[in-house]
Amino acid sequence: MIAGLYNGQGELVxxxxxxxxxxxxxxQLAAVLQPAADDHPWPDEITSYRWGGPDSxxxxxxxxxxxxxxxxxxxxxxxxxxxxxxRYLRHRPDLRPDDLPTLPQDGEDS
Length: 110
Known about the structure:
It is a single chain. The chain is mainly β. It is built from one helix and eight strands, in the order ββαββββββ. It has a two-stranded antiparallel sheet. It has a two-stranded antiparallel ribbon with strand order 3-4. A two-stranded antiparallel sheet has the order 5-8. It is globular. The chain starts with a strand and ends in a 19-residue tail after the last strand.
């Protein structure tokens, strides 16, 4: 799963990826995700070598950015993205993307 947060300009920014999900985790997410509209801001492919993949690009299945997932993540970042794979913990139906903090703008401390 590729994770994103909104920045101060309202852009959905990639912040990292999870380690592979377990079958029950995949099923839980599949039950709440909806296909993205044509105007989704992310590309149709994403490079995987950044996160240790042997190939340069993988297809990206885009979904509506309306679901909040709780993850466990290492604090290490590189170029604004998690350096290590996050662990998906659970879907958070009690939260909406607007409830989450936005990413700091360039030059701001997080």
